[in-house]
Specification:
Number of strands: 21
Distance between the termini: 73 Å
Largest sheet: 7 strands, mixed
Shape: globular
């Protein structure tokens, strides 16, 4: 079995204990193993980060940019190898994994460019002969905890800006998908990132959680994952001066109005709902259709879904990959069973896909549900799988009300041919990301990203907005007169 070491203090280290990484397309044979670090190893990682921060924060922004640009080049050079590992450990199609790999390089290049710009503002001063400005400075050691669904691009969107700004990091990739994050770390290491600026912690959460979350040197913590875990972390940090950036759950809705291009809307909704088997935080999981278009749109939607081909991500013909793990598959199947018990009708799919070669994988059929109500659990709770729930509403106002009747507020879309409806929707949808006539997914590196309500915290990711999390503002006044 392939053994992959982890990065700590600029060295690639192993341990006596190892964690197997499984292929969700066939869980019988591990694809690799990574070190199971101990609590003492985690503390050493923070030691390395603390020491390295002292030098990295004083490193020229142009040198930081050089390292990030070099890492981006290495990721592009190694794209085939990296994408193969993303597919092997996560299950997503090779096309999706390749896109994720190249987008990770985009993040590095974007923040390398941003590092070259001054972070600050020149301000007028009421006092004569004074010149005042603000400048942004790194906050220190940041703990990065990333999820299994986007195991390369999420570390990239978190680590690239904080490293560009001069911070150091301790990075905990998801236990199911550590190989992708280690590829990202290797590219930075090989591009010349100083020892200790980035340290990767692979380990069993139960064994290292206390050392990971309670270290007093943490200045900020950025987390993507479930609301349950995110809220637990938030409570744990509540009495400490630690910034928390959380990208949490979503129950994203697409609205199809009666004047929409229905075939185009059906294709976009299917792409948003079933890409990566629905395992995206911005995936569409609710579809709200204006009553006059409901029957025809439903027919088009089901036809599109039934044209998907389930299979391993390594097969070029696959358009619907397995879920990431047996645990995730079983969770989605339990949600489907509960929905049917609560009165939902399965229009297509609805069960595990375990025929033939898929018997040892984590497959669930792409599913469309009708006859759901606002009280049905699957309409309100995040499923994170290849499941769409449909409802008809009488008009535009009812559609907006249905979108906003949620604890979440990450992403929403509207499909319409009317400009007035489009702009009204963008104003009235209570979501951090709003799309018109396109998917709820696919937000580029320079676009601020994050949700409202229970979908996240006030600190956005991506674009220049992320600097609010990873830097602090200092105001400087200079008297230059007599």
């Amino acid at each position: 079995m392939r053994t992959v070491e982890t990065l700590s203090g600029g060295e690639w280290v192993a341990t006596a204990e190892w964690i197997d990484v499984l292929d969700p397309a066939d869980v019988r044979t591990p694809v690799a193993r990574v070190p199971a670090l101990t609590a003492e190893d985690v503390t050493r990682a923070f030691d390395h980060a603390e020491r390295a921060f002292a030098g990295w924060k004083r490193t020229s922004p142009f040198e930081r940019a050089r390292v990030l640009t070099g890492a981006a080049r290495l990721i592009r050079d190694r794209a085939e190898e990296i994408a193969a590992d993303v597919t092997a450990e996560n299950g997503k199609t090779l096309a999706e994994a390749t896109g994720e790999t190249l987008k990770a390089a985009d993040f590095l290049e974007y923040y390398a460019g941003l590092a070259r710009q001054g972070y600050g503002t020149l301000l007028h001063d009421v006092r004569p002969h004074h010149r005042t400005h603000t400048q942004r400075e790194p906050i220190g050691v940041i703990l990065v905890i990333s999820p299994w669904n986007d195991p390369l691009i999420t570390p990239a969107r978190k680590l690239a800006p904080l490293l560009a700004a001069g911070n150091a990091a301790v990075f905990k990739p998801a236990g199911e998908t550590p190989l992708s994050g280690l590829h990202f770390a290797r590219a930075l290491h090989d591009a010349g990132l100083p020892a200790g600026v980035l340290n990767v912690v692979t380990g069993r959460t139960a064994e290292i959680e206390e050392a990971l979350l309670d270290d007093p040197r943490i200045a900020g913590l950025t987390f993507t994952g479930s609301n349950a875990v995110g809220n637990r972390i938030r409570r744990r940090l509540a009495d400490r001066n630690v910034r928390f950036q959380g990208e949490l759950g979503g129950k994203n809705a697409s609205v199809v109005l009666k004047d929409a291009d229905l075939p185009s809307a059906a294709r976009a909704v299917v792409a948003a709902a079933f890409g990566q088997a629905g395992q995206r935080c911005t995936a569409t999981s609710r579809v709200i259709v204006e009553q006059p278009a409901y029957e025809e749109f439903t027919r088009l939607l089901v036809a599109e879904v039934e044209g998907l081909r389930t299979g391993p991500g390594s097969d070029p013909a696959t358009t619907l990959c397995p879920l990431s793990s047996p645990k995730q598959r079983d969770s989605v199947l339990a949600d489907l069973a509960r929905a049917v018990e609560q009165g939902a009708t399965v229009l297509t799919g609805g069960r595990a896909d375990d025929e033939g070669e898929r018997a040892h994988g984590c497959y669930v059929q792409p599913t469309v549900l009708a006859d759901v109500t606002p009280e049905t659990a699957i309409w309100r709770e995040e499923v994170f799988g290849p499941v769409l729930a449909l409802r008809a509403v009488p008009d535009f106002d009812a559609a907006v009300e249905a979108v906003n009747d949620s604890d979440f507020g990450l992403a929403a879309a509207v499909f319409t041919g009317d400009l007035s409806s489009a702009y009204r929707f963008t104003d009235e949808a209570e979501c951090g990301q709003v799309a018109v006539n396109t998917t709820t997914t696919g937000w580029d590196v320079h676009l601020p990203f994050g949700g409202f309500r229970d979908s996240g915290t006030a600190y956005k990711e991506q674009g220049e907005e992320v600097l609010r999390f990873s830097t602090r503002v200092k105001t400087v006044a200079v008297h230059f007169g007599a």
